[in-house]
Specification:
Blueprint (H helix, E strand, L loop, with lengths): L2 E8 L3 H8 L9 H16 L4 E6 L14 E4 L3 E2 L14 E2 L2 H13 L5 E3 L6 H11 L13 E6 L9 H16 L6 E7 L16 H13 L1 H4 L4 H8 L7 H8 L11 E8 L7 E7 L1
Parallel strand pairs: 1-8, 2-7, 2-8, 3-6
Antiparallel strand pairs: 1-10, 3-7, 4-5, 9-10
Helix pairs in contact: 1-4, 3-5, 5-9
Length: 287
Amino acid sequence: MARITASVYTSHVPAMGSAMDLDRTADPYWQPVFTGYGPSREWFKENTPDAVFLVYNDHATAFSLDLIPTFAIGTGSLYAPADEGWGPRPVPPVVGHPELAAHIAQSVIQDDFDLTIVNKMDVDHGLTVPLSLLCGQPPVEAFHWPCPVIPFAVNVVQYPAPSGRRCFMLGQAIRRAVESFDGDLNVQIWGTGGMSHQLQGPRAGLINRAWDNAFLDQLISDPDTLSRMPHVDYVREAGSEGIELVMWLIARGAMADVAGGAAPRVRQRFYHVPASNTAVGHLILEN
């Protein structure tokens, strides 16, 4: 049977992608950020899975205000890096896992969660920056990242966004889907986006260090209670873009302990401010 062996949580700040693309990770401003991800890159080399199920939000590249799916699963075989206005990132295309993705879609929809199935789309920094942070920067000519990736886009851009509770329960359904797959696969689930940040209005530049770290504490120890936090709390405490953190609850819901298993092992925890006017959070949990 397939199994989810670990969950990875990370911000996906676009400026971090630019710093990697322009080879500026050793600059004094950026060095503390990328040093924090150093142990995680070593961990990923030693624990490269057969597939990554990557939860992220699209930034008006694959979708727009004309079409806003709440949950969209990529079932294609290849995804090109998106042009977000200044050309695509100089990274390889993302190779999908159509067989596992189709199985997860079938299982989760039959488990009463409505998904939009996407056979063709480009993927933006929300997906490629986390890959670069954990995998490094493969040259474009390498053609692929270290393992297949299933993109899973969540609408946290245009209200109404899904509740944290809905996301947490969806993670549980994804775990059940993976475990029912007829194949021996090592799967990781990644939740990306966040942490506290606001990009517009009178509170632009908001960062709430204490709230972010309390969120990480509770994500580890009591995700069920955390999943019941209302949207207004995210917006008030973590800024308008802080709502992206509900995507982390999908990854946390997929961990074994929420179904009565042993508590996950914390392999890495990192937090840094600021990075391009946002807070950067990162966590690795192993089943």
